[in-house]
Amino acid sequence: MPSHFPQLGAALDDYRTRHPGEDELVAAFRVFLASHAAVFERSHLLGHFTGSAWLVSADGGRVLLMHHRKLDRWLQPGGHADGDAELARVALREAQEETGVAGLRVEGSIFDLDRHRIPARGSEPEHWHYDVRYVVRAGADECFTINQESRALAWRAVIEVAGDESLDVSLRRMARKWLVRHR
């Protein structure tokens, strides 16, 4: 199935090569990418692409998590593409907006993929988020600012996140990936 967005398609192929155990997930992302020209728009009611940041400290030992106000749980910063097919840019923008941390930079290609259902809220129907996640690294200044989307922000040791059963399974998965990558 041809894609309207060959750059993301190539990045997904690269991810599949690096994570062969995630073939089915990558295939689902590829099918969705090729399904409609509006997959980066929030108005695409079946679902849409989002970009998220695995926001690590300068030394890589900690990750910045936000307690999401609407979903009432700890998550990584991220959000809607709103028409931007460059999801690394979306992840960086969302990390900056949601944390206020200065001097952030994206490192490398896709770090993680997660497809999850978003429950209906108000006039917005239940839909899928195809979340493409990138490593975003903080510089020397790790000061953050809480905005209206979160109840709290906290730097957590990655090793603690990997073993914290109270956290979202995808956060624990990313923590384990990060620990394997940086041993």
Any overview of this molecule?
It is a single chain. The protein starts with 5 loop residues before the first helix and ends with a helix. The protein has a single domain, classed as Nucleoside Triphosphate Pyrophosphohydrolase (Alpha-Beta Complex). It contains five helices and seven strands; from the N terminus they run ααββββαβββαα. By secondary structure, it is an alpha+beta fold. The mean pLDDT is 94. Strand 2 and strand 3 form a beta hairpin.
What attributes does this structure have?
single chain, 183 residues, alpha+beta, Nucleoside Triphosphate Pyrophosphohydrolase, four-stranded mixed beta sheet, 5 helices, 7 strands, globular
Detail the topology: elements first, then pairings.
Layout: H1 6-18, H2 23-35, E1 47-56, E2 62-68, E3 73-75, E4 78-80, H3 87-99, E5 105-118, E6 127-137, E7 150-157, H4 158-163, H5 169-181
Parallel strand pairs: 1-6
Antiparallel strand pairs: 1-4, 2-3, 2-7, 5-6
Helix pairs in contact: 1-2
